Amino acid sequence: MTKLDFNDPHYYTNRELSWLAFNDRVLEEARDHNNPLLERVRFLGITQSNLDEFFNVRVASLRKMVAVDYNAPDPAGMTPAAQLRAIAKAAHAMVDKQYSTWSRSLVPKLEGLAIRLREFDDLSPKQHEFVSDYFHQELYPVLTPMGVDPTRPFPFLGNNSLNLAIRLQRPEEAEDDKARSFAMVQVPDVFPRVLRLPGAANDFILLEAIVQAYVGELFVGADVQETAMFRVTRDMDLDVAEEDASDLMKEIQSQLKKRQRGKVMRLEIDAGMSKYLRKRLEKGLDMRDPNDIYEIKGPIDLNVLSKLVKAVRDHAELLYTPFAPYVDPRLIDGNIFHAIRAHDILLQHPYDSFAPVVEFIHQAAIDPAVLAVKMTLYRVSSKSPIIRYLKQAAENGKQVTVLVELKARFDEENNVHWAQELERAGCHVIYGLVGLKTHSKLALVVRREETGIRRYMHMATGNYNDVTANFYTDLGLFTANAEMGADASNIFNMLSGFSEPAYFNKLVIAPLGIRDFLTERIDEEIAHAKAGRKALIRMKMNSLSDAKMIAELYKAAAAGVKVELIVRGITNLKVGLPGVSENISVHSIVGRYLEHSRLYYFYAGGEEHLYLSSADLMKRNLSRRVELLFPILQEDIHARVCEIFQTLWDDNVKTRVLMPDDSWERIDLRGQTKLNAQATFMAAANAHTLRDAAGIDQEAAADDPQNTRRFTPMMAPESEED
């Protein structure tokens, strides 16, 4: 038998191209006629936001590699330069698809419902008057014309700023037909970009259209011959040398200022821009590769579409039906510590409310029996109630220790602010570990009770963010398990000091142990398969890109283990490789909510070991971050989590299945009953809320102490014809 070489590049797909394929699945939601129209518009805006960050970080990283002649190939055998060429080809195709979706599909449907983005020349007299007043009274005093000539150098343009390029002829150039000057005007972001027009409920105009129409008034005496919009995307990745930083917070703050001046990664221009304006921009922005320039056939920066959706009036039917998550009254109205001590509690967000997590910290802050509160924070909202209650806990004399990860990408500034706030309130704040990001989601409350000291914990797959908890799917566990509590204390001692615990009882952390732990579980499944016993691995995560873990899954599949994976985003594994991955199936769910939970299941000869984690199977998670993996030990919660996975696996409405050619295909629904997993969970939560409103049957509640729900598949609507 030929020995398999799991380092073979043909066994892997490129990470960046896999991410672009994920964004294409999001774009499919904008093209899906089963989605409400304004939600389709919103999905299209999300693809722009995703692509912006991709250029800010991933493309920027590859460009840095090329700049220092780093030519080592990735697991798929592609050098950084080859990846950039492939990205450009795929990204240009994606942009064409974005704007085709906008102009050919969404705009006609919106206009059919009298929702219109007006061009300046199409305005009614009343609307013209409104726009003129708005420009002269509001915009004009703020706008700054920027000429470019030997005495006025090309100005700095911020990341994602929207600008107007202008070709004009000044009076002194009038006698020379070829003489022309170049200038710019930045569209100010201190005004709404979508303006409602008078005369119709849902007539709008974009701010840049107004600036463009009246820009001549900023260049008195000159003849404006051409105007065109453009936008730059810069390198926004932080490069923090932690080992050399005497004060990490000051270093982060310094890097935040420098980040705004990163090199240009992408230039978006109006498709009709002349060669003259284009060349001036290429020179001024040092654009050397034509592939970095994107000609846009529509409004530049589709992030504006989310603002348009919010501005539309009187069309609730074009949005998702509002959903109110289930709130367990025992976790809000009663003593949450008594409830947790009686029984572990699982929360499935956003179907279960995030409010009990906030209440957990609130009650810890005001409970006289609580001695200490310890917590890791990676991303929190801008008005976080959890921060407020942590400060209150410190003010009430509790020992409060908070690890605030200052290096959480694009949340650095927010986290610096919260770290300073917590320190002022008397909390002990840790900024993370040198060389590692702390991505674990862990809260520990230490309470003095009649029987002695007891620890209460919340562990989760998602961030302590009360805003994103409304649209990210995550799982969280409340427990008072003594062994896990001891482990949690050891983890915080390790994070805050120089403690190196000899072992952990139940919890597993990265970078010390998650990779090895999962590899051991995979090896056990391989042993079962080789012995002729049932062997099954089921995993759910955001991204699967760690080549070593993919190789382990290949080994398992080659040995006969059945492997079922739900991966929302990046997937570098290939299916259908003869003798390698024929036993592996990969699903991806993209729908109303962002699938964010991480789950790892092993059949284990019938014992069915089940773990939740903050970690994806990415090299950064397993090797360069502090991550947490925790077991589900309680039988009823174990059954519920397994059922959650099964419902997700059975989804045939929002699921795409990975094919051997790396494409993703929807499930053929002919002859099948439609099942939308997210809609199923919403229906179960609504039914539970109605049951509570009608009065909980106390005998039934006693038999179901943590309100375990059974999911009845929800039927999806029939496809709508175009």
What's the SSE blueprint?
Blueprint: H1 15-31, H2 37-67, H3 80-112, E1 116-117, H4 125-139, E2 145-148, E3 162-169, E4 181-186, E5 194-196, E6 203-206, H5 207-214, E7 223-234, H6 248-259, E8 264-270, H7 275-284, E9 293-296, H8 304-311, H9 329-332, H10 336-342, E10 345-349, H11 355-366, E11 370-377, H12 385-395, E12 399-404, H13 412-424, E13 428-430, E14 437-438, E15 442-449, E16 452-460, E17 472-479, H14 482-496, E18 508-510, H15 514-530, E19 536-541, H16 547-558, E20 562-567, E21 584-589, E22 594-595, E23 599-602, E24 609-613, H17 619-623, E25 625-631, H18 635-650, E26 655-658, E27 664-666, H19 677-693, H20 698-703
Parallel strand pairs: 1-6, 8-9, 11-12, 12-13, 14-25, 17-22, 19-20, 20-21
Antiparallel strand pairs: 2-4, 3-4, 3-7, 5-6, 7-8, 10-17, 11-15, 15-16, 16-17, 18-25, 19-23, 21-26, 23-24, 24-25, 26-27
Major sheet details? 10 strands, mixed
- Annotation, overall tally of beta strands: 27
Name the beta content range: 15-25%
Helix percentage range? 25-40%
CATH superfamily of the largest domain: Polyphosphate kinase middle domain
* CATH architecture identity of the largest domain: 2-Layer Sandwich
Q: Average pLDDT value?
A: 91
Query: Structural class given helices, strands, pairing?
Result: alpha/beta
Radius of gyration: 28 Å
Query: What would CATH call the class of the largest domain?
Result: Alpha Beta
Give an overview in words:
The chain is an alpha/beta fold and 722 residues long. The chain has three domains: 310 residues, polyphosphate kinase like (2-Layer Sandwich); 175 residues, Endonuclease Chain A (Endonuclease, Chain A, 2-Layer Sandwich); 194 residues, 2-Layer Sandwich (Endonuclease, Chain A), CATH 3.30.870.10. Helix content is 37%, strand content 20%. The chain is built from 20 helices and 27 strands. Strand 15 and strand 16 form a beta hairpin. Helix 2 packs antiparallel against helix 3, helix 2 runs antiparallel to helix 8 and helix 15 packs parallel to helix 16. The longest helix is centred in the N-terminal third of the chain and has 33 residues. The C terminus is likely disordered.
